Amino acid sequence: MEMESMSVALTGNPNTGKSTIFNELTGANQKIGNWPGVTVDKKVGHVNYNGKDITIVDLPGTYSVSARSPEEKIVIDYLLENSSDLVVDVVDSSNIERNLFLTVQLLEKNIPLLIDLNMQDEAKRRGVKIDVKKLEEALGYPVLLTIARDGKSLKNMLNVFTSVSMAGYGPSDMLKAHIDKVKEIESSSLSDKEKTEKIIELRYDFIDVIMEKAVTFESAGPSMTERLDSVLANSVLAIPAFLAILYAVFQITFEWIGQPIADALEGLITEDFTDFVTEALESAEVADWMQSLIIDGIIGGVGSVIIFVPLIFILFFCLSFLDGTGYMARVAFLMDPVMRRCGLSGKAVMPLMMGFGCGVPSIMGARAMDSEKDRMLAILAAPFLTCGAKLPIMALFAAMFFPEDAANVVFAMYVVGVVMAIVSTKLLGATQFKDEGATFILELPPYRMPDMKNVLLETWDKGKGYLTKAGTIIFLGCVIIWFLGVFNSSGMVEDMSESFLASIGSAVGALFTFHGFGTWESGAAIISGILAKESVVSTIGILYGLPDISAEAEDAVETAEAMLGTGMGSAFTTMSALAFMVFSQIYTPCVTALGTIKKETNSWKWMFFAAGYMFALAWVVSLLVYQIGTALGF
Amino acid sequence: MTLDKGVPGMVLKVDSIGDSDLKERLMTMGLTPGIKVKVLRSAPLGDPMAIGLRSYNLAIRRKDAAHITVEEIEA
Lengths: 634, 75
Prior knowledge:
The complex is a heterodimer of chains A (about 625) and B (about 80). Chain A has helices at about 20-25, 70-80, 95-110, 120-125, 130-140, 150-165, 175-185, 190-215, 225-235, 240-255, 260-285, 290-305, 310-325, 325-340, 350-355, 360-365, 370-380, 390-400, 405-430, 450-485, 500-510, 520-530, 535-545, 555-565, 570, 575-585, 590-600, 605-630; strands spanning about 5-10, 30-35, 40-50, 50-60, 85-90, 115-120, 130, 145, 215, 440-445, 485-490, 490. Among the domains of chain A are: about 5-215, P-loop containing nucleotide triphosphate hydrolases (Rossmann fold); about 470-630, no CATH class. Chain A starts with a strand and ends with a helix. Chain A is of the alpha/beta class. In chain A, α3 (about 95-110) crosses α8, α7 runs antiparallel to α8 (about 190-215) and α27 (about 590-600) packs across α28 (about 605-630). Chain A has a seven-stranded mixed beta sheet with strand order 2-3-4-1-5-6-8, sandwiched between helices. With about 80 residues, chain B is mainly β. Chain B has one domain (about 5-75): SH3 type barrels. In chain B, about 15% of the residues lie in helices and about 40% in strands. Chain B contains two helices and five strands. Chain B has helices at about 25-30, 60-65, and strands spanning about 10-15, 35-40, 50-55, 55-60, 70-75. The longest helix of chain B is centred in the middle third of the chain and has 6 residues, at about 25-30. β10 (about 440-445) of chain A pairs antiparallel with β4 of chain B.
């Protein structure tokens, strides 16, 4: 039997538990995509109930629908252009007054709403009492009570979805009178700005009347939020507490849990699995080029996609969890003065700090930003930081050419990364995104225990999105670079110095004649660094005749001693080595990061922009370092 | 006085919101003339400040708060 279908759109303010409702209703039965042209999640899910196939769209959380931000535009366009069978306005009952603003604005636009007073438990704790009957009378539309995490309450919600008939409802007399007043102002001779402001005041006047009729407050003593904020957002303890949490997240991701799993996976793929496949291929007497394609190209490519998955899962688990508690808003509150000077949102601190481990989760973490501009700027800032894979390059060059000051030189490269991230953000903020004013108004939501189902689903979505969307691009990139490294126009080559990579390397190397490292070896190393920054060191090893050197930063001193005996020792001067380090610090991110940028910005244009722009920036800065350095006699 | 001069614990009534790019958004968030606002705290670095209004908490920068004129109704 064909099931009857119906569509439901969820709208509401941020921090109302709307996404929790969506996740609880649809579970794993949801798809996350992008709204066209913007970096805003589009979430659509399904649930079968009472013989109906219900499609639920979770619209972005917004405070209003004045179409100023991409999110607000998405919400209002969707609601006006799609005839959903039911539009549910999720309201945080403990914060009903401001939440009603969106409700009233939507009702003015003739969008019939089922008003869901969510977070009943919290409202009760905070002494907020809402008279449902009176609220229904005041607006003329049906009102439902829920506690998002309570199974019974959600079942009741589905019952209402499948049984309510919106045709039986219409604006109350009070609401009609309000709408008339709004229309009167709209047709008046006031300026647009005056009209908008007057209408906002009218809405709150109307809300004040509703509040008077339907809501009572009982004093409930200082809330848990107040007590927590007096530590986490107020006192001298706030900054140390933030640093401790940041440190814990970093350690969990890159030391305690994420990286060890990634390392184990890498071992499994590059050793056990590769050995197994190599044996199988050899015993089957497969052609050499085919063996190389399968082992170095395909397994290598898949491997470089998969080893990032543990990092992404662990980091997103931490970030979703912290976001769910409300702490991320406090981070933005604490760090705003610092981040503002860098042209970024305070919320960018946490994801950007992860950039010191790996740019990929860092870029994905930019989703937490509130505006399109902040998201783009954070995405484009993350690759400048010294990730774990750039560190071995810095460590090797520092140990080789600055043996006395190796640690200081490596530290200086971290500073270069941070400074470039700031300079670039300022530059992009002033040129690419200047139309959007940088403003800051931030709700500090109550602290809550995050809904674990929510956290796990978000984490899963990030991991899955990375694998499916970014993974394909990364994999392709790896296979292409593999091909360039083992082939030339006459077929497969034994020695990388005869490959396409070497010929491209010498063309690329020529770009760096005035940087002091215009050799084809550096050119090839730079190209392979686009595959993965780890490859810079291993490529240099291969090209200078030491293919077995360690690419680990902790072995840098030994590696450096060995490398000094090769042609590399004379290929660089201290100044050109420094210029190469600066270049490596800044230039085009690896394909994994590029694939992630494509996925997150949903645009090839931004991916290629990032690749080209960062290359150009690195070229200029590195040239300046070398030319000024040599002119000063270093 | 203006809102940025408010110290934690003060309860203030908003008189007017000065013109700025932020005015419409501030009003949308419920900061309308006549509304009661409580100053909660400053961020540890001195800025932004947190205020409570319409039973929720909001953070705004001091330079934006300087556009909002208020009068004290409770110390």
